[in-house]
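User: Structure please.
Assistant: Input sequence and predicted structure:
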Amino acid sequence: MCNLYTVRKSAEEVARYFGVANPVKSNAPEEVYPGTPGIAVIEQDGAREMRSMTWGFPLRLKTMKPDAKPIPVNNIADLSKAMWVGVARKPQWRCLVPLTHFAEPEGPKGKKTRTWFSLPGEPIFAWGGLWRMSDEWGPVYSGAMTAANEAVSPVHDRMPVILHPDDYERWMNGTLDDLLAFQQRVYPPQLMAMERTSDLWVKKKASGAEDATLLL
């Protein structure tokens, strides 16, 4: 699953890439973790907008105490599942998640490091997602996942649904079957780059994100 990604570009650069007229002012950090603010691109009245939202749909489990904080469900394993299909059918709840890199942990437990993936030919790219309004956190979003390609599989068996620029319109306004097809597609591994680092994954764990996310 994807529990960390970056947007190493300014709001103005992101807006220009996605054809958004007015960049949003957001407190989203460069590194985005589940349950924290991020940016999603949505469509309203035929025009694209950038919105600041929380990454992860809030979920309360039956075993949780009444005053416990919801768990952010930040990854979508299957768009046809009951939790997602009603939202996925409606184009007004589709979104594009801007990113420049996403990370996966690699190595032994307690010493995992960050391995980053990017698209060298695309300084900014889009992750196919859904969004909605929530009572707990206001607007929230989550990203669809697919099987890892040969570039990512040495590290993890899942990866984000990465969209080509000419896929954006179909993701935002296509049918549910279109979205399911994207989730079954294998993104070309030759278009991706891997960067292994010595940076400990534990920096993310300090935020509570690693232990408080679900893939549904």
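The CA atoms of residues 30 and 136 lie 24 Å apart.
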